[in-house]
Design a protein that fits this description.
This protein has 187 residues and is α/β, with parallel strands linked by helices. It has eight helices and seven strands, in the order E-H-E-H-E-E-H-E-H-E-H-H-H-E-H. It has a five-stranded parallel sheet with strand order 2-5-1-6-7, sandwiched between helices. A two-stranded antiparallel sheet has the order 3-4. Strand 3 and strand 4 form a beta hairpin. Helix 3 packs parallel to helix 4. The termini are close together. The mean pLDDT is 88.
Length: 187
C-alpha cells in the first residue's frame, strides 16, 4: 500500500464502524468521514437528500479516507464508487445488542453531544414496540435484511473494483486492522 486508501466501513448499528474507521484513519493519516455527522441536523432531523449527497461528495473527493456508515440508498454510489475497500462488520446479535445498550446508556449518562445538538434518549430505545424510535428494535429488524443486501452487493459486478472484507467478530476486525496497517508501514 503505497498510496492513501479509501475504505468504507459498513455493518449493523453499534458494530463499531466509526471506532474502527477512525482508528484506521489515524494510523493512515487520512480523514475519517462519519456519515451520521453529514446526515443528522439538529433535533434529529435528517438532511435533505441532495444536501447530504453534496456533503458526502465533497468529503469523499479527496485522495484518501475512511468512512463509517451505511446509507446505501442515498450515497452508496458515491462512497462505494470511490472506495477501493469495503469492510463489513458482520457481527452476531449477541455482540451487537449489548454494545448498543452500553453505548446508548453511556451517551445518555454523559450527556454526549452527537452531530450538532442531538443527544441520546435512552428511554426511547427501551421501547422495543416503537419501531420508529428504538435503535434496538431497528437493530433486530435490520440484521437479516442487511446481511442479505450486503451479500448481494458483494456479488454485484458493478462493485468489481472494490475489495470486500467480511469480518465476523471484533477479534477478526482487530487482526484485520493490524494486518492492514502493518502492510502499509512495510510497503
Amino acid at each position: 500500500m503505497t498510496s492513501p486508501r479509501r475504505i468504507a466501513f459498513i455493518g449493523n448499528t453499534s458494530a463499531g464502524k466509526s471506532t474502527l474507521a477512525a482508528e484506521l484513519a489515524r494510523r493512515l493519516d487520512v480523514p475519517h468521514i462519519e456519515l451520521d455527522a453529514l446526515y443528522w441536523e439538529p433535533n434529529w432531523v435528517g438532511a435533505e437528500r441532495e444536501v447530504f449527497r453534496a456533503r458526502v461528495d465533497a468529503a469523499t473527493g479527496v485522495e484518501g479516507w475512511t468512512s463509517s456508515g451505511n446509507y446505501l440508498t442515498a450515497v452508496q454510489d458515491l462512497v462505494w464508487g470511490r472506495a477501493d475497500t469495503v469492510v463489513w462488520l458482520d457481527y452476531p446479535l449477541r455482540v451487537l445488542v449489548p454494545r448498543l445498550w452500553g453505548r446508548t446508556y453511556r451517551r445518555w449518562r454523559d450527556g454526549e453531544l452527537l452531530w450538532g445538538t442531538n443527544r441520546e434518549n435512552v428511554w426511547q430505545h427501551f421501547k422495543l414496540w416503537n419501531q420508529e424510535q428504538s435503535l434496538v428494535a431497528f437493530q433486530l429488524r435490520q440484521q437479516l435484511p442487511k446481511r442479505r443486501r450486503y451479500e448481494a452487493e458483494m456479488r454485484d459486478p458493478c462493485w468489481a473494483h472494490v475489495t470486500f472484507e467480511r469480518l465476523r467478530s471484533p477479534r477478526e476486525a482487530e487482526a484485520w486492522l493490524e494486518r492492514t496497517t502493518a502492510a502499509r508501514t512495510t510497503a
